[in-house]
Give the backbone structure.
Amino acid sequence: MRRKTSIARLFLYPVFFFVVSALCAGCATLSSPGTIPAYSIKGTVYYPLISLCESRGVELKYDTLINTVYLNKDSKRITLRAGDEIILVNDSAMHLDAPVDFHYGTVVVPRQFKEQVFDILFPLSVSAQRKTVKEKIKLKKIIIDPGHGGKDPGAIGKRGLREKDVNLDIAMRLNDLLRAEGVRTVLTRSSDRFIPLPTRVSITNKSDADLFVSLHANANRSRSLNGFEVYYVSPSVSDLKRAHDAARNVPLHLKNSVFARRSQDLESIVWDMIYASNRAESIDLAYSLCRGIGSAVDVSILGVKGARYQVLRGANIPAVLVEVGFVSNPGEERLLRSGAYRQRLAEGILEGLRRYSQDMSLVEVSER
């Protein structure tokens, strides 16, 4: 989550910022959906294992001599050990992206374990799922960019489905969902109009928004290709060049900051740091959107990729471009014609935004 004051603090205290980011373990507590507490440890979201087990009726045994935990329910078994990234799931090894850890004397597990192992082996009952209350999105303002429009139809499916229509419909549905959550939104277009790419970038950079999400539908010569993917600005794009351009053309509006004299070099340094931070946040957002869609829609997740799209290169806030599916694939073209399917896609994107905002809230609290 972006705030102007955080940029000023980044400029005024660069040494402190980098030292703390690199060296401190940073740990904070925040409630997660459903009553299970969540912790941010070194930038990774963790959950207390005992709370997870109690919520699902899973038997937990802990061998203190070898720091090993054994979970068991309905003949399903998990073995894990504090400090290890390797766990055993029904006697098959699995590698986690973060180790099992201790937090205030309690065994905690990374979110990957919860979502990809625990929730699958020991799912919530239907009644428990209905009782789960989701936290509201902790974002103030989001730019929604329906790709193409007007004289630019975008990709066109074999049966005539136009990308520009799919993009706008999902954007309007997402807009309604976000506004219902109290999030302010800006649509780069709300009708079938052609909006030039530089204009979309200008709208974004004048908006004072937290995030930019551009919605598109894909196409490929191979009609068998299908799936959902998210793009962030490519690492090959020069942040330093963008920073120099921004320093010449865009005021920083840093609060509580005092420049002895106006210096393009100093402003370029600040912009370079902002762009580097934006790319990292964009990648986090992209992964959150993939997880959100994966939980809402039965679709192949093609993953997160870098690209040089103009709307991403020009944005001075975290920005992603979402490809909701392939109109060139007969099956996905048929699905994308469905209003019900488009609604599920909008809800999946909403869920991804919710997960991203919760993760960012954990990180912000841990850095205070």
Notes: The chain has twelve helices and 16 strands. The domain at 141-366 is CATH 3.40.630.40 (Aminopeptidase).
